[in-house]
Write a structure and sequence with these properties.
single chain; mainly alpha; globular
Length: about 350
């Protein structure tokens, strides 16, 4: 059975998607090959159900998108170390953003406060689609038996959900990062600006080796913590509290992975962060802000997770890997202190 914090019917799909924007997943939809609670379909005709889902998603994202978009920008911002004759100085190259709330203010200064809601409409579309998928009736069939194999079934479910939503997450993150104005009336042109020619020709190119490794590693950590470590600690008296503390300590591992995942999703925009990179003859690319809020690393990160983490540490310092750690802590705290 999937962990209850991933499938509890009381959690709305809005909350789940806001968490996915922040770099982690809190609940995949129920899978046909798993025995898991499934949210009951409201007793409403389809003509009323669709507006209700749309309204609930709109209200949730109106609050969540500004928080998530600021976090995505803060984690993606590239601030390499500079060179100074003063041994105690720590110069930085590019716009210096000291923290989450400083990034919040920078968005308002460069793009106006409306810039905090960039990515709202693709998020709304994605949330609406996933809300419909969540409420689709699926057979409750047990193919994978309970017990230790729950570890494997949880990994499969998490991987399925993460791989299914990865293209949506990539489009949303890039729509937030790009300095271009993306009109609602030109969705196809917007896709051309957010995806490389190779990605448009072959969407599987979105699943880069680095992103695949990150998704697999985070899924294994979540499943292993719930289905291997938790049963072991429960054997000893007081072991449950030890497990809770250990789960909270996982933020030390998960936060750098969350930072790297955000950067990997927006990396192809690197050469496009300068407005001069867009041809003036292209009417879709003529409107942009005077400067990008976020500076991206000019070169792609290595395909290995270990090498990419080392590159971030060496170029920007260990503080870059801890950006938004309290959001990652919130995620693991929800797992650790879940009553189920």
């Amino acid at each position: 059975m999937l962990p209850s914090h991933l499938t509890r019917s009381s959690k709305s799909s809005v909350t789940a998607y806001i968490f996915s924007l922040l770099g982690f997943s809190c609940r995949p939809p129920s899978m046909p090959f798993l025995t898991a609670p499934h949210p009951s379909l409201p007793d409403l005709p389809l003509s009323l159900l669709l507006p209700v889902l749309l309204l609930s998603a709109t209200l949730g994202l109106a609050i969540g998108v500004p928080l998530a978009s600021t976090l995505i920008r803060w984690r993606a911002h590239y601030t390499p170390k500079g060179i100074s004759l003063d041994a105690e100085a720590q110069p930085r190259v590019g716009p210096v953003v000291s923290g989450y709330f400083d990034m919040f203010r920078r968005v308002g200064e460069v793009e106006g406060w409306g810039g905090l809601w960039k990515g709202f409409f693709p998020s709304l579309l994605a949330e609406f689609v996933m809300g419909l998928i969540t409420y689709l009736p699926t057979p409750n069939i047990t193919i994978i038996t309970p017990g230790f194999t729950s570890f494997l079934s949880s990994i499969l479910s998490l991987l399925f959900f993460n791989f299914l939503t990865l293209p949506l997450t990539i489009l949303i993150n890039r729509s937030i990062i790009t300095p271009l104005r993306l009109p609602l009336t030109t969705p196809l042109a917007n896709l051309r600006r957010l995806l490389t020619p190779e990605e448009r020709a072959n969407p599987l190119k979105l699943y880069t080796p680095l992103l695949v490794q990150l998704l697999l590693l985070k899924s294994c950590l979540a499943a292993g913590n719930l289905y291997v470590l938790r049963p072991l600690f429960r054997i000893a008296p007081g072991g449950e509290m030890v497990w809770k503390m250990l789960t909270l300590a996982l933020v030390v591992v998960l936060c750098p992975l969350d930072v790297l995942q955000v950067r990997a999703t927006v990396q192809p925009l690197g050469p496009s962060t300068s407005p001069d990179a867009f041809p003036s003859s292209d009417s879709d690319a003529q409107e942009h802000w005077s400067e990008p809020v976020v500076v991206l690393r000019p070169d792609p990160y290595p395909p290995s997770v270990q090498e990419s983490l080392r590159a971030v540490h060496d170029e920007e310092g260990k503080g870059a890997l801890a950006r938004g750690w309290w959001f990652s802590l919130f995620a693991v705290a929800g797992q650790a202190f879940s009553p189920y």
